[in-house]
What does this fold into?
Amino acid sequence: MQTIITGRVWKYGDDVNTDVIFPGKYTYSLTEPQEMAAHALEDLDPAFAAQVQPGDIIVAGRNWGCGSSREQAVICLKAAGVGAIVARSFSRIYFRNCINHALPIVTCDAVDGVNSGDQITIDFAAGTVTTPQGVYTFPPLSPEARAILEDGGLIPHVRKQLGL
It folds into this structure.
């Protein structure tokens, strides 16, 4: 995991659920991450999948990723190149799925200080999100979550721990 990420913002509101992030109609028909990426957020923002660039950052309101436990809702964004997600809050299982798939996440109120298209910088070591309107702080992830992110996700982390 990079310590500092700078990227272009895609701004969304509250209660964006996993069915909107990755449409349920594809759950059992698409299995490859790049196929999933082509449909990321298509029901909320039809331009997203075609226009997202590697390192772009999603900034959202409360309860990002509510709904089902569908891992594809994380996998599609990571495969699309999303560098991180910043939200006021995350659903518990979505938060954990992000850690498991090594998609960096930040819980803070930066949604108030950005517009879609802005450039922001996340400094994980300093615990800051720098936006055009100011600097927002966030609590650090636990050492265990950081280790999983740094190892590239839960499966690589476990393999490393087991010496495989």
